[in-house]
Amino acid sequence: MNFRIKIISLILIVSLAPYILIMIYSGNILRDKYYENTQQEMKMQLSLTVERIEQYLTTLKRDMVFISHLDIMNDIYSKDVDRRISNLLEDKKQELNLDGNFHLLDITENIIATSDATLLYKKLDTAPMFLIDIKSEIDGSIIGKLALDFSLKNIINFFENSPERHYFIRLDKTKTLYKTDSFTNEIHVKQSLNTMKNTEIVLEQNQNVFLNSLKRYENIFILALIFGAIIISVIAFYFIDKLIKPLLNLSLIVEKITNTQDYSQRVPIHGEDEIATLADAFNQMLSGIDKALQENEILYREIEETQKEVVFTMGAIGESRSKETGNHVKRVAEYSKLLALSYGLSQEEADMIKQASPMHDIGKVAIPDAILNKPARFTPEEFEHMKKHAQLGYEMLHHSTRPLLQTAAVVANEHHEKWDGSGYPNGLAGKDIHIYGRITALADVFDALGSDRVYKKAWEDERIFELFREERGKHFDPDLIDIFFKDLDKFLSIRDTFKDS
């Protein structure tokens, strides 16, 4: 063996042996990581599904609590249960497309109203999922219970099965329900439902799919190993400087992306060698990440828009109970945004108060109709009861961590506070009143005075303007009154645009 061959052999052994050992070791690590990532992705998918189920069940329970507080439920106390309650329960079942039934039970647990007429006046023979007490408005005693006979079929509507993956339900860790298939080899993850004790949602994947993907990966890995050995050989003899520089450029791009989180950047591709292939693969990966981030942004905006629609609808519901039109909340929202921008708040805050202001009177849903729609002045006792709607609205909303609902809680709580401290519920004064509350107060009063209500006719504009001038620095923030008159044409234009039919 001549010297040249010995040197070549030595260089190849020194260069390739560590590389091959490291690659094999890394391949084993990546194999385990690939399996772990598959499980992690399944856990994330399962978590999202369970979250939607939990939200559905929580909303269902809240609906039942809401129904249990309706005035119609007092028919139990008067022993005058008629078809209206059953109709209400039937309608709710149809609205939810629910597999199961709502039952109204008396204190002896007989069914006295139900969404299934065949069960009327019978005993409930199954354990209900939710059982809500119905209390008398007279003495607070329990006069009945609202029960939900719930089928787990409702949950499978949230399952998105495929030939490779499917969901099923496991009760008490032993009984399996709605399992569509059985895989010979399987990877599975599970998560318990907080709302339903001893109930697990299981996501199962055919392990053969994983193994086939892994086999393709291993073939690529072997090819990469061979190509890597060739590259190392070339580097060792001829192209060290030429090949090191592109790798350094790639490293710099990776570092820049890591620091800036800007996945729109791309690695320049020169030539058609293995480094260029790596750069192209890296660019494709960046494109995928960038696309995923954009899709997440779109999804976030859709969730935000849905939240805004829900807030507006809830506000409209609150107003409709006091015989006001949906255009009232639209006008108050537009007035509030105009005031916020003119006051100097940011566009983001102005949009926030526009979306939150429809909720200012949401607390009225808890005020009895007899008071809410009284076509005359309130007695002192009635007015004290009516004033509670501000605090009630705050209590409904302030538990949320969402910025929009936090803003709505402030608006609901403070839109009846007055600049001179004579308002309610907390008697705040001046700038101790949040700017959101001060803005909504002016917007709400302007629209209320200019609109017909059950207890009054709409005021003429000049009478409203005169009142606002008198209440500057008393009821209203003087700066906001000045803004109102400066932008009066814009306020009147909004009123004309959203006038009641």
Estimate the mean pLDDT confidence: 81
Rough shape?
flat
Radius of gyration: 33 Å
Question: Looking at CATH, which topology of the domain at 298-497 would you report?
Answer: Hypothetical protein af1432
The CATH H-level superfamily of the domain at 298-497 is: Hypothetical protein af1432
What does the oligomeric state look like here? Answer: single chain
Q: State the helical fraction.
A: 55-70%
Cα-to-Cα separation, first versus last residue: 102 Å
What is the C-level CATH assignment of the domain at 298-497?
Mainly Alpha
- Residue fraction in strands: 5-15%
The CATH architecture of the domain at 298-497: Orthogonal Bundle
Give the biggest beta sheet: 4 strands, antiparallel
Report strand order across the widest sheet: 2-1-4-3
Q: Which properties best describe this structure?
A:
501 residues, 8 strands, 13 helices, alpha+beta, Hypothetical protein af1432, Beta-Lactamase, 57% helix, four-stranded antiparallel β-sheet
